[in-house]
Amino acid sequence: MEQLQTLTTLRGRSILRSIYRELRYERQLGNLAVLNTSWRICASERELNRYSGQNVTVLHPLGFFGGTALWLQEIVNRFYFSTISSLVYLGAAFLLVIVGAFRFTNAIGSELVVAGIALEALLLTILFITMFFSPPDDVENEEEPGSKDEESESRQLIREIGEISSDYAAFSVQVEEITATLASLAAQQDELIGALRESSRQHALMVAPQPELLETIRKTNASLGEFQQSIADLVAATQKLQHEKIEQAVRREVEQLLAGRLGSNSQ
């Protein structure tokens, strides 16, 4: 719970104005009820949470005269000065009408003129009191702690937004760099896949010979078969030729033996 010595401090005046705004605009109380409640707060009330959501305790109430002076400064002068000035102008206009009618006609009595003058004098007195209890210049120019806090929060929020924007820009740059890196990796991957495909093709060719090589081997085998057949024919021809030579040699020997025997018999 926040504790205040009196409501005449800057913090107390700020709380008093915030209570007025809460009663007038959030709770929608009438002007007379708001004026009465705010005067009691200024003069005698200690626990302000009875009238607003602010948990504040006033240690030293101002009393009748001090509370009335603060009430005139912070409530009446700040929020009702225009209304009082308007009533003074209205009373002056009403007085001029009455005096003019009394001057040129007999329909207006002197009692009404006197009442108009008294009313205008009362309104001028109220305006004088309101202007007399205007808030001091140092209070007018002094920043309220709440406004300082709000300004510091606003500056902090703007700073955080700027930091978020900077982080987002840096993140965008990093995303672009990552995208370029991924594109480069994709190109390298395509090249690697192509190299793997070529290596697989070469390996397949090494494991399974080419059709041209198979055709060459087939032709070579056919040529070797023909060559083997030629050798076999040559061998057969050679054997036949040897057999014939042997027969011829045998015949010559037989002929020579027969010729020798025939020659010996004839002698």
Structure overview:
The protein is mainly α and 267 residues long. The protein folds into 2 domains: 141 residues, no CATH class; 58 residues. 82% of the residues lie in helices and 2% in strands. Strands 1-2 form a two-stranded parallel ribbon.
What descriptors fit this protein?
single chain, 267 residues, mainly alpha, 2 domains, two-stranded parallel sheet, rod-shaped
Summarize, please.
The chain has seven helices and two strands; from the N terminus they run βααβααααα. The chain is mainly α and 267 residues long.
List the helices and strands and how they pair.
Blueprint lengths: L1 E3 L5 H17 L4 H13 L12 E3 L4 H42 L5 H23 L4 H5 L3 H63 L3 H56 L1
Parallel strand pairs: 1-2
Helix pairs in contact: 1-2, 2-3, 3-4
Mean pLDDT level: 78
Structural class: mainly alpha
Tally of individual helices: 7
Order of helices and strands: EHHEHHHHH
Number of strands: 2
Radius of gyration: 65 Å
What's the number of structural domains? 2
Low-confidence spans: 142-147
- What fraction, in percent, of the residue positions are helical? over 70%
Approximate shape: rod-shaped
For the biggest sheet, the summary is:
2 strands, parallel
Enumerate the strands of the largest sheet in spatial order, edge to edge or round the barrel.
1-2
Question: Span between N and C termini?
Answer: 177 Å
The amount of beta strand, in percent, is under 5%
